[in-house]
Specification:
Blueprint (H helix, E strand, L loop, with lengths): L1 E4 L6 E4 L1 H123 L9
Antiparallel strand pairs: 1-2
């Protein structure tokens, strides 16, 4: 037979096979419950740790997304400034070209005006010569026959 010593009174108690099975099942059940509690505790800790990890990963991803957006925003602003400067430069070149063309057109118009005046003077002189020649012809006798 098996014996156990009482922890309170220090007496030796004999345990027979029937009690041994009951005690053994109670000890196993107590151990099993203890393991279930430990397992639940560990599961809760793992879930909490996983949640913290997920939250940390989400925060990191959010910060990276914000940083990426800032970079993209700066690139777009830079491209916009570059495009604006290019457009301003193109406009300045067009204005200069238009001014040069206007000056050239003004010069061409002045030259055309001067040539027109020269042609008018020449035309006036030619008309004057034609009138004089016509008058001279009108004064000349036309084919008179003289008898001798």
């Amino acid at each position: 037979m098996n014996t156990i010593i009482c922890t309170n009174c220090q007496q030796i108690i004999e345990i027979d096979k029937a009690l041994e099975g009951q005690i053994e099942s109670r000890v196993l059940e107590a151990a099993n419950q203890k393991h279930q509690v430990e397992l639940a505790k560990i599961t809760a800790e793992v879930e909490a740790s996983a949640q913290r990890t997920a939250n940390a990963a989400t925060e990191i991803a959010r910060k990276e997304a914000v940083a990426d957006l800032e970079i993209a925003k700066k690139q777009i602003e830079s491209e916009a400034k570059s495009t604006q400067k290019k457009t301003e430069a193109d406009q300045a070149l067009l204005i200069k070209s238009f001014q040069e063309n206007a000056a050239s057109a003004k010069d061409d118009a002045e030259i055309a005006k001067q040539e027109s005046q020269k042609l008018r003077v020449e035309l006036t002189e030619v008309m004057k010569l034609l009138r004089e020649e016509k008058q001279a012809r009108a004064l000349q006798p036309t084919g008179s026959i003289t008898k001798t």
